């Protein structure tokens, strides 16, 4: 949340500045109100209807608003669509991915029949390759091996295709990059470049970046191409074209991807259906993944949502945060800063709302939920938990030290830390807002440390 610095002497001197300070307060209030929209069990109405530009925008008034929202929070089970409904929505997806995968493989893989000209470059039109130079280079190497990769089964040319064995699903700004980088060091783990394909939540709808309207959709085949380097190795092992040591390692490897939007982002339905579907989207990401690969495993790492909300302050210009805006323009500068910082996305911190949706289709033992605070203080312990969860092979002491002692990835930028602490009133409001959600999260996970109240932290 952005730090608001409004010069009170200037407010008294300028009527326009008084008006602007009200706008700033209203925007801050609006952030909570918009975030509360997702709390309504039927998503049809807001939990709180504000009086626009109300005269009383004091700190006490803001506290009352947030407390009012917190008292109305209810958690209700959603309706889970059946497979026939999902097949009607995603007919092509179910025609490509079989209902059963090859036995005795850790990853969900199958042989896909090829049609058409097999001499053509199968990766030439891949949209991931066009978007990422690193992917393009990998595809160029695979293209040269493509024809040799084909195998004839039952008189038909086929190739092996795979989906991930596990997903790091969230949350943003909670340590997913650090988990990704450490997991890459395990010899039995294969992770996609890039770290975040964002296919399930965005690119299959044609959304390249969060907040943009849909453009060209990324087909399922383009997503599956990302896993072809590992699929090729598995196929060679299955057909006896690899040494016994390589075969053993490849067949037991765990294929994964780490899109931090997978846990929470179902916003694409707004572009496709608007409000025509009523209360909720007809299906969520987890419904499709469960229908296609019911044995998948998921890792989520979370942090105190109040602390997570502080990070996007870096979007505000330093001259605003440091109070260096010219006096006659200070209120305007602050309002601009607030508008930029609305991107804090308070709803992403409502962890339990999304987790309950995932637990409506996947069993609890398929979800590993970690806290960033625990991971940061003892990465060796948290990585050991992940390795057991993914059923990975034992590591040498040297490799274990290499993984646990690796410097943390994607830490907060020094210039952002220099901005100073969050203002007390902002922290208080955020704490009040998230409290009922954190409490419910702790109940669901049977772990009081997920309240982040400071009294039940892990030691």
TrEMBL record:
Superkingdom of the source species: Eukaryota
Pfam families, alphabetized: Sulfotransfer_3 (PF13469)
Listed InterPro entries: CS_Sulfotransferase (IPR052654), P-loop_NTPase (IPR027417)
Transmembrane segments annotated in the record for this chain: 19-39
Any single GO BP term: hexose biosynthetic process
Keywords: Membrane, Transmembrane, Transmembrane helix
GO MF assignments: N-acetylgalactosamine 4-sulfate 6-O-sulfotransferase activity
The keyword Transmembrane appears for this protein: yes
Region (Disordered): 398-422
Name this polypeptide is given: Sulfotransferase
Annotated organism of origin: Sinocyclocheilus anshuiensis
């Amino acid at each position: 949340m952005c730090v608001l610095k409004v010069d009170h002497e200037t407010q008294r001197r300028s009527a326009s500045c008084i008006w602007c300070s009200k706008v700033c307060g209203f925007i801050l209030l609006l952030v909570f109100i918009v975030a509360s929209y997702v709390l309504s069990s039927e998503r049809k109405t807001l939990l709180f209807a504000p009086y626009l530009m109300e005269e009383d925008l004091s700190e006490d008034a803001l506290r009352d608003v947030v407390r009012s929202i917190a008292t109305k929070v209810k958690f209700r089970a959603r309706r889970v669509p059946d497979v026939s409904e999902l097949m009607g929505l995603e007919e092509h997806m179910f025609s490509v991915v079989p209902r059963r995968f090859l036995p005795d493989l850790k990853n969900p893989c199958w042989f896909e029949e090829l049609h058409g000209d097999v001499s053509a470059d199968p990766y030439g039109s891949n949209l991931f390759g066009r978007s990422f130079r690193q992917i393009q280079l990998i595809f160029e190497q695979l293209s040269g091996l493509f024809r040799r990769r084909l195998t004839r089964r039952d008189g038909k040319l086929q190739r092996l295709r795979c989906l991930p064995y596990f997903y790091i699903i969230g949350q943003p700004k909670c340590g997913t990059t650090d988990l990704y980088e450490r997991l890459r060091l395990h010899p039995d783990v294969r992770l996609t470049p890039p770290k975040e394909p964002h296919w399930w939540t965005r690119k299959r709808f044609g959304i390249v970046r969060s907040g943009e309207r849909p453009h060209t959709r990324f087909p399922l085949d383009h997503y599956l191409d990302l896993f072809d380097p590992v699929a090729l190795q598995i196929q060679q092992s299955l057909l006896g074209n690899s040494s016994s040591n390589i075969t053993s390692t490849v067949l037991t490897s765990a294929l994964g991807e780490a899109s931090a939007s997978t846990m929470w982002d179902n916003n694409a339905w707004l572009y496709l259906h608007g409000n025509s579907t009523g209360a909720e989207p007809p299906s969520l990401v987890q419904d499709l993944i469960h229908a296609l690969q019911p044995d998948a495993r998921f890792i989520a790492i979370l942090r105190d949502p109040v602390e997570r909300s502080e990070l996007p302050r870096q979007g505000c210009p330093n001259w605003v945060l440091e109070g260096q805006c010219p006096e006659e323009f200070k209120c305007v500068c602050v309002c601009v800063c607030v508008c930029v910082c609305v991107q804090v996305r308070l709803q992403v911190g409502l962890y339990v709302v999304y987790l309950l949706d995932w637990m409506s289709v996947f069993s609890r033992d398929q979800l590993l939920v970690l806290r960033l605070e625990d991971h940061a203080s003892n990465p060796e312990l948290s990585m050991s938990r992940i390795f057991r969860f993914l059923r990975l092979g034992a590591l040498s002491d040297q490799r274990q030290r290499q993984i646990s002692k690796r410097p943390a990835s994607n830490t907060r930028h020094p210039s952002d830390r220099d901005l100073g602490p969050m203002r007390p009133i902002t922290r208080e409001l955020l704490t009040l807002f998230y409290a009922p959600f954190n409490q419910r999260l702790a109940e669901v996970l049977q772990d009081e440390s997920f309240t982040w109240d400071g009294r039940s932290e892990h030691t």
